[in-house]
Automatic annotation (TrEMBL):
The lineage of its organism: Eukaryota, Metazoa, Chordata, Craniata, Vertebrata. It comes from Dryobates pubescens (Downy woodpecker). GO terms for cellular component: adherens junction; apical junction complex; apical plasma membrane; cortical actin cytoskeleton. Keywords: Coiled coil, Cytoplasm, Cytoskeleton. This is Protein Shroom1. InterPro entries: ASD2_dom, Shroom_fam.
């Protein structure tokens, strides 16, 4: 029964992932259209700033999500520490936690820098775009970020349930 429930949950997550991937493709098309428009109306250096911002947006958001996920796993492992856990493992977890916490703080600084750059790019685009086009650009940035987060979250859930299913299947004689 439990295996069937996990398989059903996985099936729903896989279907949801397909929908998100479809949304990602649609967002990519919008991004390509926006890129072509920005290339046509902006100066080359302004277009380069725009392209660097869009490229870094995905990298920084992905980095933050990855570090947060890894940090959460280490924190979960630290909560499972008991009297039987050897000192070496405790030390290793504490060091990994410290390192990941520092890295996540650095990534947050990168995100703040990226937010400042977004305001600069927005200011550049405001000189060329209509109010509606500027709103479309801002919506694109928001949707792109949201889809990255949603996609990563789904991948983590799928991975978790696949591991649970595998452990369960191995435990049954």
């Amino acid at each position: 029964e439990l295996i069937s429930c996990l398989q059903s949950k996985l099936q729903r997550l896989w279907e949801e992932r397909e929908l998100v991937l479809s949304d990602v493709q649609e967002c990519s098309k919008q991004g390509e259209e926006l890129e072509a428009m920005v290339r046509a109306i902006c100066k080359p250096n302004e277009f380069e700033r725009y392209m660097m911002f869009i490229g870094d947006l995905e990298k920084v958001v992905s980095l933050l999500l990855c570090l947060s996920t890894r940090l959460a796993r280490v924190q979960n492992a630290m909560r499972r520490i008991d009297g039987n856990t050897d000192a070496e493992e405790k030390q290793s977890l504490a060091e990994r936690h410290k390192l990941l916490s520092r890295q996540r703080e650095d990534a947050k600084d990168l995100k703040e820098n990226l937010d400042r750059r977004e305001r600069v790019v927005s200011g550049i685009l405001a000189k060329y775009l209509t109010d509606q086009q500027l709103q479309d650009y801002r919506r694109f940035v928001q949707v792109k970020t949201s889809l990255l987060i949603e996609q990563k979250d789904l991948e983590e859930q799928i991975k978790f349930f696949e591991e649970q299913l595998e452990h369960l299947e191995q435990s049954i004689p």
